[in-house]
Structures are given as structure tokens and as C-alpha cells.
């Protein structure tokens, strides 16, 4: 049996990547089957209940559970899929406080824990805003009998806002209180998901640099790495002696370096494995005999994270020498209904929309139907809207430029444009329709007009505006690129040399070279909204890595490692001007247009 966790960074963007784009939209179950796990936990669904497609909400072979933010749509959100044939969920709750309740509320027998085991009743959590901490769709608690699984998406550690730092600290306290309450109930626990914190120096690509920087300030050993509250909390949670959970994946690979699960895609950090390990599967010590192996799957793309999984033994031998089979303790293959908060019980999935009873069926087409001539095709009718169980977000197209669509054949559009042009030029007009709107039969047999219309050729003049600060070489390059013949009346001495010179002059400019490595730079485009959006620029083509030059403001000079990307940057427009100026000057010399004696 396999249990898998993955921050997918958006359930609607995942199918855009290979191999997920090989599955049809209606076949989300194919994506789940490809992951080859019995319990699948997703974080950052970035959806809402109203926007969730039915194929994603209730795949046929899985029981599914979701938690979405109450106020902010397209943000956070977690999901648990349990394969009905191998893992049956006995109970399930949204959130970790026990305060998020369906209608009607869960009964005592439907709840996962006793009332005193929830964080609201735990010491140290009295002053926390429990409802606010459970309102962002960050956790699901599912009871599988053998263990209670908590799928969690902890708040990000990438902000300095005081209120979010406090929110994250309070969420950690609430989460730990929930785990401790379950352990006091003698339950085994699996805590998994995106914890947004590193558990060890080895889990961070720049861990050693962080430690060295702290040691320069007098902080001993690796204590500087734990100055952040989130890292210290996670370290204490899995400590060998005092911890309550076990980092089971690291237990199987204690010394493996580069076992990262998250990368910054904006700087292409995944190419050089410059990342962090912030996705975990933590288990209570009593489950260790069941754990067979665990690892990460960095080869699976589609998100800035990669999946993490553990596998369980099919059976173990208990302290009495008896075989205990996993299928028996997980209720595999049972036919009873899942917990009431399962998505299959949502009203939008179990009820048929009233509009479906009024959809007109298509009328039968007579066999002797007459097909209209191709000269006057009727406009294609829009497809009959089919009822949907959940609304699909509308795309805003008012400000977008028109794009050719397969639903509008280009040939027809061209014909209409030609007819309009013929009317302006005095050509034959299109056949007129009669009063009833139907084209007359005689119009199809009219002789084509033989009138010829002579149109005046329009001459266009290209205007180039030069800045006053453009140098002479750049002006010369622009001038030469528009002239049909060289200014000199004397024939060139070497035709091959002339051809090469012109080829270099008119060829697209070569990319500039970075200043540190003297290697061709890589072209990039600004995608962030702002005044520079769409502009191209060049940066060093080397990948990022520990100590790469992120700029003087972000990297101290003695920490820079030149084997990685340097801080070279140049706008493409500036690079083009410089290259054209150099090319124009050298080509002019070869063609004999520049007097080197003057």
C-alpha cells in the first residue's frame, strides 16, 4: 500500500504538464491512477467548491474529501483521495479544531476524537483564534482505523508581515495540540503535507551558508539555522528523544544530500536541484513496523513541488506472533458508505439540475433534406448548452486581441472580406435576398461580372525615428540596412567577402556574453505585470546553485561561488544596439566604405 502527498500548485494547471496532459479533462481519475497510490493527499488545490469539476470532485474509484478557504477563492485548499478497493475512511473532519461542521453537525459517533482531544480544549490554546486558523482550507483529518491521517498545508514562511508570522506560529501550536490529543487517545498518527519549513540543515540548499553567516555573528554550531520559529518547531516535533513524530522518509535516507521537494521555478532552480525539503510524511513511533520504505519523486513534473510517498507492508507479525494483514485493518473492499463530509454527498453531485429536464432533443434530419449550395453557407449555430453541475469560471476577452478559432473557418471570413472589397471597387454585388430573407433561386445562376477594376497602388514610406544620443555607427547600420546598393560606385574587389559582410550586417544580433564567465547569455522575457512587461533581457546562462550571485544587495561578495550564475543583466534593446554598432563598423571596413586613414 502506498500513501502519497503532493503540493500540486493548482488543480487546474496540473493537466497542462506532461504526462498529465495526456489524460482527458473528464479523466481526472487517470491522473490519480498514474500516481499509483492508495491514499493521495494534495495541497494548494487553488480552487473552490463552486469551481471544482465533477471529474475532480468524485472520481469513480475513490472516496474524496476537500477543504477550501472560506473567504479567498483560488488559494490554498487540500484534498484527500482514498481508493475504495484498498483503503476505507471510517471518519473524516474538515480542519483541525473540530469547529468546521457540515449541516447538520457531526454526531459524537461521527467525530474522530473525544471533545477533550480537540485543540479548543487543550492547555495553551485558549487564547488562539480557532475559527480564523481553520478558515483558510489548510487541513483535513481522516480516520482510517489503523491510523488517523492529517493532510496539512502550513502557512508560508516567505513573508515578514507580523500578523502572518503570528498566524503561522499559532497554526503550528494548534496543529501540534491536535496531534498530541490523538496520541493521548492511543491513536497512531500520520501527519503529512507541505509543512513550509526545513527540518535540518541538509534539507536546505543554502543550509551551510546560513550556518556560516550565523557563526560570523558569534552563534555556535548550527544554531543559527534554527533562528526561524518554523524550523525550530519542526525540529522539536521530530527530535529523537523528546519528539512525538518520526521523519520516516529521512529515516530511510539519513545521509542523502539534495533530497529536495520544492524549487523556485522563476529562476529555473529545479534544473540544478537548488531547492528545499519542506514536504514531509511524519508518523507516530507505533506505525514504524508497518513502514516498508519512503522516498521522493522529483521526476514527476507539473508543480514547483514533487510528490513524497511511503509504502506499507502487506502484513506484519505482532508481539503475539500473529499475522496482521493491512487489508483487514483498513477495511479494504467494504461496501458501506464513507463519512458524511465526502464529496459524493454534496448536493451539487447527488441532485440532478432542474434545467436538465427542459433540454430540447435534436430534431431528426429527413433523409431527403436539400443541402444548400456552398456559395451561401449559413452561419454555424452555437452548440446547445449542456447542463453542468458546477459553474465554470468565465474568461474575460474584452481586452484581448482576437485569435483565430477552429469554430470560425478562415475561408468563409476571407470570402466575406472579398465581397466587401468588390462592392467598394464597383464589382458585382452579392446576390440579394428576397423579402422573406431567403436567397432567390435565380441568383445562383447569374453570370459572373467581367468588369475589371483598376486599383491604385499605394506606396508606403517607412519612418524611422532616431534618438539624438544614438552614435554614428548605429545610424550607419540603420542606413545601410535600407539601401539597395552600396554608396560607392566602384565594384567590390571580392564578391565572397562582400556577401559575408552583408550577411553579418543583416543577421540577427548574437546574444551578449556575461562578464564573469564570458559565455553567451540567456534571453528572458518579463512576464510580471508592470511597465516592463513583455520586454526581453539577457542574464547569465549558468544555473543557480548554493552561493550563486543574486546581486550585491542579496549576496555578500565573499559568499559568491563563480561556478553558478553570475549577476549579469542587460536589456535586449541595449544589447541589440551595441551589437549592430559593432557589426556595422566592421562590415563597413570590409566593404571599403570607411576610410581608415581619416
UniProtKB/TrEMBL annotation:
The active site is at 153, 194 (proton donor/acceptor), 305 (proton acceptor). Probably binds two magnesium or manganese ions per subunit. One of its GO terms (molecular function) is double-stranded DNA 3'-5' DNA exonuclease activity. The record marks 196 as: Transition state stabilizer. Mg(2+) binds at residues 7, 44, 194, 196, 304-305. Belongs to the DNA repair enzymes AP/ExoA family. PANTHER family: AP ENDONUCLEASE, DNA-(APURINIC OR APYRIMIDINIC SITE) ENDONUCLEASE 2. NCBIfam families: xth. This is DNA-(apurinic or apyrimidinic site) endonuclease. It comes from Mycena chlorophos.
Amino acid at each position: 500500500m502506498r500513501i502519497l502527498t503532493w503540493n500540486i500548485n493548482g488543480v487546474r494547471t496540473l493537466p497542462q504538464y506532461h504526462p498529465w496532459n495526456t489524460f482527458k479533462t473528464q479523466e481526472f481519475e487517470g491522473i490519480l491512477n498514474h500516481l499509483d497510490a492508495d491514499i493521495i493527499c494534495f495541497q494548494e488545490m487553488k480552487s473552490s467548491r463552486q469551481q471544482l469539476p465533477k471529474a475532480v470532485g468524485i472520481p469513480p474509484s475513490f472516496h474524496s474529501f476537500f477543504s477550501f478557504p472560506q473567504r479567498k477563492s483560488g488559494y490554498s485548499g487540500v484534498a484527500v483521495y482514498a481508493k475504495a478497493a484498498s483503503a476505507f475512511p471510517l471518519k473524516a473532519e474538515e480542519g483541525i479544531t473540530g469547529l468546521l461542521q457540515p449541516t447538520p453537525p457531526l454526531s459524537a459517533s461521527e467525530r474522530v476524537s473525544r471533545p477533550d482531544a480537540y485543540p479548543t480544549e487543550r492547555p495553551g490554546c485558549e487564547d488562539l483564534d480557532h475559527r480564523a486558523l481553520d478558515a483558510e482550507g489548510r487541513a483535513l483529518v481522516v480516520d482510517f482505523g489503523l491510523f488517523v491521517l492529517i493532510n496539512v498545508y502550513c502557512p508560508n514562511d516567505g513573508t515578514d508581515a507580523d500578523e502572518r508570522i503570528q498566524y503561522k506560529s499559532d497554526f503550528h501550536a494548534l496543529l501540534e495540540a491536535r496531534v498530541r490529543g490523538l496520541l493521548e487517545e492511543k491513536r497512531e498518527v500520520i501527519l503529512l503535507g507541505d509543512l513550509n519549513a526545513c527540518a535540518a540543515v541538509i534539507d536546505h540548499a543554502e543550509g551551510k551558508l546560513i550556518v556560516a553567516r550565523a557563526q560570523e555573528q558569534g552563534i555556535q554550531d548550527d544554531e543559527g539555522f534554527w533562528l526561524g520559529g518554523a524550523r525550530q518547531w519542526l525540529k522539536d516535533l521530530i527530535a529523537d528523544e523528546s519528539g512525538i513524530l518520526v521523519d520516516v522518509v529521512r529515516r530511510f535516507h539519513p545521509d542523502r544530500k539534495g533530497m529536495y521537494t520544492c524549487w523556485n521555478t522563476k529562476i529555473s532552480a529545479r534544473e540544478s536541484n537548488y531547492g528545499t525539503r519542506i514536504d514531509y510524511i511524519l508518523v507516530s513511533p507505533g506505525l514504524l513496523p508497518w513502514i516498508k520504505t519512503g522516498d521522493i519523486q522529483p521526476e514527476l513534473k507539473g508543480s514547483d513541488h514533487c510528490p513524497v510517498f511511503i509504502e506499507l507492508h502487506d502484513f506484519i507479525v505482532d508481539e503475539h506472533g500473529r499475522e496482521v494483514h493491512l487489508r483487514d485493518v483498513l477495511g479494504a473492499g467494504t461496501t458501506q458508505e464513507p463519512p458524511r463530509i465526502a464529496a459524493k454527498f454534496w448536493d451539487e453531485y447527488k441532485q440532478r439540475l432542474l434545467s436538465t429536464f427542459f433540454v430540447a432533443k435534436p430534431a431528426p434530419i429527413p433523409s431527403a433534406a436539400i443541402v444548400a449550395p456552398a456559395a451561401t453557407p449559413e452561419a454555424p449555430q452555437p452548440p446547445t448548452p449542456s447542463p453542468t453541475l458546477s459553474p465554470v469560471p468565465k474568461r474575460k476577452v474584452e481586452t484581448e486581441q482576437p485569435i483565430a478559432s477552429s469554430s470560425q473557418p478562415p475561408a468563409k471570413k476571407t470570402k466575406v472580406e472579398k465581397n466587401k472589397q468588390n462592392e467598394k471597387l464597383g464589382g458585382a454585388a452579392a446576390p440579394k435576398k428576397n423579402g422573406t430573407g431567403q436567397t432567390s433561386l435565380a441568383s445562383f445562376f447569374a453570370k459572373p461580372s467581367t468588369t475589371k477594376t483598376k486599383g491604385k497602388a499605394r506606396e508606403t514610406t517607412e519612418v524611422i525615428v532616431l534618438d539624438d544620443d544614438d552614435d554614428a555607427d548605429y545610424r550607419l547600420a540603420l542606413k545601410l540596412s535600407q539601401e539597395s546598393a552600396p554608396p560607392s560606385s566602384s565594384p567590390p574587389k571580392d564578391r565572397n567577402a562582400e556577401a559575408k559582410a552583408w550577411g553579418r550586417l543583416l543577421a540577427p544580433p548574437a546574444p551578449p556574453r556575461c562578464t564573469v564567465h564570458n559565455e553567451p547569455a540567456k534571453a528572458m522575457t518579463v512576464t510580471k505585470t508592470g511597465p516592463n512587461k513583455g520586454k526581453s533581457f539577457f542574464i547569465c546562462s549558468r544555473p543557480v546553485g548554493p552561493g550563486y550571485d543574486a546581486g550585491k544587495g542579496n549576496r555578500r561578495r565573499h559568499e559568491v561561488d563563480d561556478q553558478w550564475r553570475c549577476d549579469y543583466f542587460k536589456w535586449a534593446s541595449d544589447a541589440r544596439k551595441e551589437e549592430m554598432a559593432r557589426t556595422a563598423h566592421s562590415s563597413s571596413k570590409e566593404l571599403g566604405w570607411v576610410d581608415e586613414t581619416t
